[in-house]
Amino acid sequence: MNGNFLRLFLVKLELLYQISSSLSDKSTTACFDYEHCNTSQGGVHDLECFKIYSGKKLICEWKPGIHVSNSTKYTLIIEQKERNRCEKLTNITGTTYNSDIFSQFNFTVWVVEVNEQPSVCFRDVFLRGRLVRCPPEQIKYERQKDDFIVTWKKKKNVHYQLQYKELNKESWILVNSKVDDRIKVAVPNETAFYEAQIKCIPNDVCNDCKWSESLFIPPGKSI
Fold first, then answer.
1. Are residues 209 and 197 located together in one domain of the fold?
2. CB-based contact 99:60 (threshold 8 Å)
3. How many CB atoms lie within 10 A of CB 135?
4. What pLDDT, on the 0 to 100 scale, is given for residue 111?
5. What is the CATH number for 96?
6. Do 109 and 74 sit in the same domain of this protein?
7. CB under 8 Å to 184, separation ≥6 — which residues?
8. Range of the domain at 145
9. CA angle, corner 65, sides to 61 and 70, nearest 5?
10. Is 2 contained in some domain?
11. Is residue 146 within 8 Å of residue 139, measured between CB atoms?
Protein backbone atom coordinates (compact mmCIF):
# COMPACT_ATOMS: atom_id res chain seq x y z
CA MET A 1 0.00 0.00 0.00
CA ASN A 2 2.79 2.40 0.92
CA GLY A 3 4.62 1.52 -2.31
CA ASN A 4 1.54 2.36 -4.43
CA PHE A 5 1.12 5.64 -2.58
CA LEU A 6 4.76 6.55 -3.17
CA ARG A 7 4.53 5.75 -6.89
CA LEU A 8 1.34 7.88 -7.18
CA PHE A 9 3.05 10.73 -5.35
CA LEU A 10 6.06 10.59 -7.69
CA VAL A 11 3.80 10.56 -10.79
CA LYS A 12 1.96 13.67 -9.54
CA LEU A 13 5.24 15.37 -8.71
CA GLU A 14 6.56 14.70 -12.22
CA LEU A 15 3.33 16.03 -13.75
CA LEU A 16 3.55 19.22 -11.69
CA TYR A 17 7.17 19.65 -12.80
CA GLN A 18 6.19 19.31 -16.47
CA ILE A 19 3.38 21.87 -16.11
CA SER A 20 5.69 24.28 -14.29
CA SER A 21 8.37 23.90 -16.96
CA SER A 22 5.82 24.50 -19.72
CA LEU A 23 4.53 27.67 -18.08
CA SER A 24 8.07 28.88 -17.47
CA ASP A 25 8.99 28.35 -21.12
CA LYS A 26 5.85 30.15 -22.29
CA SER A 27 6.50 33.18 -20.09
CA THR A 28 10.03 33.60 -21.40
CA THR A 29 9.16 33.15 -25.09
CA ALA A 30 8.13 36.32 -26.92
CA CYS A 31 4.81 36.12 -28.72
CA PHE A 32 6.22 37.88 -31.77
CA ASP A 33 9.52 36.51 -33.09
CA TYR A 34 9.63 38.04 -36.58
CA GLU A 35 11.66 41.14 -35.77
CA HIS A 36 13.97 40.30 -38.69
CA CYS A 37 11.15 40.98 -41.18
CA ASN A 38 11.11 44.35 -42.93
CA THR A 39 8.59 47.15 -42.36
CA SER A 40 9.20 48.91 -45.68
CA GLN A 41 6.42 50.52 -47.70
CA GLY A 42 6.73 47.81 -50.33
CA GLY A 43 5.52 45.10 -47.94
CA VAL A 44 2.25 44.17 -46.30
CA HIS A 45 0.49 47.24 -44.87
CA ASP A 46 -2.75 48.83 -43.61
CA LEU A 47 -3.50 46.07 -41.11
CA GLU A 48 -6.82 46.73 -39.36
CA CYS A 49 -8.76 44.58 -36.89
CA PHE A 50 -12.36 45.22 -35.93
CA LYS A 51 -15.66 43.68 -34.87
CA ILE A 52 -18.91 44.00 -36.79
CA TYR A 53 -21.97 45.34 -34.93
CA SER A 54 -23.70 42.42 -33.11
CA GLY A 55 -20.98 40.04 -34.37
CA LYS A 56 -18.68 37.94 -32.19
CA LYS A 57 -15.57 37.41 -34.32
CA LEU A 58 -12.57 39.68 -34.64
CA ILE A 59 -11.95 40.43 -38.32
CA CYS A 60 -8.47 41.37 -39.46
CA GLU A 61 -7.78 42.76 -42.93
CA TRP A 62 -4.58 43.94 -44.61
CA LYS A 63 -3.21 44.97 -47.99
CA PRO A 64 -0.50 42.95 -49.74
CA GLY A 65 2.93 44.22 -50.66
CA ILE A 66 4.21 44.80 -54.17
CA HIS A 67 6.22 41.56 -54.25
CA VAL A 68 3.35 39.10 -53.78
CA SER A 69 2.94 35.99 -55.93
CA ASN A 70 0.84 32.83 -55.93
CA SER A 71 3.19 31.36 -53.35
CA THR A 72 2.89 34.26 -50.88
CA LYS A 73 1.70 33.19 -47.42
CA TYR A 74 0.73 35.22 -44.35
CA THR A 75 1.08 34.58 -40.64
CA LEU A 76 -1.20 36.36 -38.17
CA ILE A 77 -0.07 36.69 -34.56
CA ILE A 78 -2.57 37.81 -31.90
CA GLU A 79 -1.44 38.57 -28.36
CA GLN A 80 -3.63 39.27 -25.32
CA LYS A 81 -1.40 39.81 -22.31
CA GLU A 82 -4.33 40.08 -19.89
CA ARG A 83 -5.34 36.51 -20.80
CA ASN A 84 -1.78 35.25 -21.25
CA ARG A 85 -2.76 34.26 -24.78
CA CYS A 86 -0.55 34.10 -27.85
CA GLU A 87 -2.14 32.77 -31.04
CA LYS A 88 -0.21 32.16 -34.26
CA LEU A 89 -2.13 31.44 -37.46
CA THR A 90 0.08 30.33 -40.33
CA ASN A 91 -0.19 29.61 -44.07
CA ILE A 92 -2.97 32.14 -44.70
CA THR A 93 -3.36 32.71 -48.44
CA GLY A 94 -5.87 35.58 -48.44
CA THR A 95 -5.75 39.08 -46.94
CA THR A 96 -8.45 38.67 -44.30
CA TYR A 97 -8.98 36.40 -41.31
CA ASN A 98 -11.74 35.91 -38.72
CA SER A 99 -10.63 35.02 -35.19
CA ASP A 100 -12.57 33.84 -32.13
CA ILE A 101 -10.46 36.05 -29.88
CA PHE A 102 -12.21 37.48 -26.80
CA SER A 103 -12.31 41.07 -28.05
CA GLN A 104 -13.36 42.64 -24.74
CA PHE A 105 -9.67 42.53 -23.75
CA ASN A 106 -6.90 44.61 -25.29
CA PHE A 107 -4.87 42.91 -27.98
CA THR A 108 -1.93 43.42 -30.31
CA VAL A 109 -1.94 41.94 -33.81
CA TRP A 110 0.91 41.42 -36.27
CA VAL A 111 0.75 40.17 -39.84
CA VAL A 112 3.80 38.72 -41.56
CA GLU A 113 4.08 38.37 -45.34
CA VAL A 114 6.43 35.62 -46.57
CA ASN A 115 7.26 35.46 -50.27
CA GLU A 116 9.00 32.80 -52.36
CA GLN A 117 12.24 33.09 -50.43
CA PRO A 118 11.53 32.40 -46.72
CA SER A 119 14.30 34.81 -45.75
CA VAL A 120 12.41 37.69 -47.41
CA CYS A 121 9.46 38.78 -45.28
CA PHE A 122 7.56 41.92 -44.35
CA ARG A 123 5.47 42.79 -41.31
CA ASP A 124 2.86 45.22 -40.06
CA VAL A 125 1.34 45.75 -36.61
CA PHE A 126 -2.06 46.86 -35.30
CA LEU A 127 -1.95 48.68 -31.97
CA ARG A 128 -5.16 50.71 -31.89
CA GLY A 129 -7.98 50.12 -29.43
CA ARG A 130 -11.13 48.07 -29.85
CA LEU A 131 -12.96 49.00 -33.06
CA VAL A 132 -16.59 48.27 -33.93
CA ARG A 133 -18.01 48.81 -37.41
CA CYS A 134 -21.68 49.16 -38.28
CA PRO A 135 -21.92 48.91 -42.08
CA PRO A 136 -25.38 49.62 -43.54
CA GLU A 137 -27.30 46.52 -44.59
CA GLN A 138 -30.11 45.88 -47.06
CA ILE A 139 -29.58 49.19 -48.86
CA LYS A 140 -32.35 50.16 -51.31
CA TYR A 141 -33.32 53.31 -53.16
CA GLU A 142 -36.40 54.85 -54.77
CA ARG A 143 -36.01 57.58 -57.40
CA GLN A 144 -38.70 60.13 -58.15
CA LYS A 145 -38.74 63.13 -60.47
CA ASP A 146 -37.08 65.63 -58.12
CA ASP A 147 -35.77 63.50 -55.25
CA PHE A 148 -34.57 60.06 -54.21
CA ILE A 149 -34.90 58.06 -50.99
CA VAL A 150 -32.25 55.65 -49.70
CA THR A 151 -33.23 53.11 -47.03
CA TRP A 152 -31.35 50.49 -44.99
CA LYS A 153 -31.92 48.07 -42.13
CA LYS A 154 -32.47 49.87 -38.83
CA LYS A 155 -30.02 49.18 -35.99
CA LYS A 156 -30.50 50.16 -32.37
CA ASN A 157 -28.55 53.27 -31.33
CA VAL A 158 -26.85 53.52 -34.73
CA HIS A 159 -27.24 56.61 -36.90
CA TYR A 160 -26.10 57.14 -40.48
CA GLN A 161 -25.15 59.86 -42.92
CA LEU A 162 -25.15 59.94 -46.69
CA GLN A 163 -22.98 61.72 -49.20
CA TYR A 164 -24.04 62.09 -52.83
CA LYS A 165 -23.07 63.84 -56.03
CA GLU A 166 -23.88 63.88 -59.68
CA LEU A 167 -21.99 61.14 -61.47
CA ASN A 168 -18.54 62.21 -62.75
CA LYS A 169 -18.53 65.37 -60.61
CA GLU A 170 -15.96 66.02 -57.89
CA SER A 171 -17.73 67.54 -54.88
CA TRP A 172 -19.91 65.53 -52.49
CA ILE A 173 -22.91 66.83 -50.55
CA LEU A 174 -23.29 65.48 -47.00
CA VAL A 175 -26.68 64.74 -45.40
CA ASN A 176 -27.36 63.33 -41.91
CA SER A 177 -30.35 61.05 -41.40
CA LYS A 178 -33.25 62.46 -39.38
CA VAL A 179 -34.56 58.94 -38.80
CA ASP A 180 -32.52 55.78 -38.29
CA ASP A 181 -33.32 53.89 -41.49
CA ARG A 182 -33.71 56.35 -44.39
CA ILE A 183 -32.66 59.64 -45.99
CA LYS A 184 -34.62 61.68 -48.52
CA VAL A 185 -32.64 63.91 -50.85
CA ALA A 186 -34.06 66.64 -53.08
CA VAL A 187 -32.18 66.87 -56.39
CA PRO A 188 -32.52 69.75 -58.89
CA ASN A 189 -31.56 67.79 -62.01
CA GLU A 190 -34.19 65.15 -62.78
CA THR A 191 -32.22 63.73 -65.72
CA ALA A 192 -28.90 63.27 -63.89
CA PHE A 193 -27.36 60.06 -62.59
CA TYR A 194 -26.34 60.24 -58.94
CA GLU A 195 -23.75 58.40 -56.87
CA ALA A 196 -24.34 57.91 -53.13
CA GLN A 197 -22.45 56.37 -50.19
CA ILE A 198 -23.55 55.69 -46.61
CA LYS A 199 -21.70 55.31 -43.33
CA CYS A 200 -22.48 55.32 -39.62
CA ILE A 201 -21.94 58.38 -37.43
CA PRO A 202 -19.32 57.49 -34.75
CA ASN A 203 -20.67 57.02 -31.21
CA ASP A 204 -20.22 54.69 -28.21
CA VAL A 205 -21.75 51.78 -30.15
CA CYS A 206 -19.87 52.21 -33.44
CA ASN A 207 -16.52 53.96 -33.39
CA ASP A 208 -15.03 52.91 -36.74
CA CYS A 209 -17.18 54.19 -39.61
CA LYS A 210 -16.28 53.62 -43.28
CA TRP A 211 -18.11 54.75 -46.42
CA SER A 212 -20.06 52.00 -48.14
CA GLU A 213 -19.52 51.02 -51.74
CA SER A 214 -21.14 53.48 -54.13
CA LEU A 215 -24.82 53.22 -54.95
CA PHE A 216 -25.65 54.41 -58.47
CA ILE A 217 -29.06 55.99 -58.88
CA PRO A 218 -30.38 56.53 -62.44
CA PRO A 219 -32.93 59.21 -63.42
CA GLY A 220 -36.53 58.66 -62.44
CA LYS A 221 -39.43 58.70 -64.85
CA SER A 222 -41.08 62.07 -65.43
CA ILE A 223 -44.42 62.40 -63.69
1. yes
2. yes
3. 19
4. 93
5. 2.60.40.10
6. yes
7. 147, 148, 149
8. 134-217
9. 90
10. no
11. no
What total number of domains does the chain contain? 2
Can you tell me the distance from the alpha carbon of 101 to that of 97, in angstroms, rounded to the nearest whole number? 12
- Other CB atoms within 10 Å distance of the CB of residue 84: 10
CA pair distance 185, 141, nearest whole angstrom:
11
Query: Measured between alpha carbons, how far is 83 from 102 in angstroms, rounded to an integer?
Result: 9
> How does DSSP classify residue 14?
H
Radius of gyration of the chain (CA): 26
> What does the pLDDT profile of the chain (223 residues) look like in tens digits?
555 454 444 434 444 433 333 333 333 347 888 888 888 778 899 999 888 988 888 899 999 988 888 889 999 998 888 778 888 999 999 999 998 776 666 788 999 998 876 567 889 988 767 789 999 999 999 998 889 999 999 998 899 999 999 998 999 999 998 888 999 999 888 889 999 999 999 998 899 999 999 999 998 754 3
CB-based contact 161:120 (threshold 8 Å):
no
Q: Assess if residue 24 is contained within a domain.
A: no
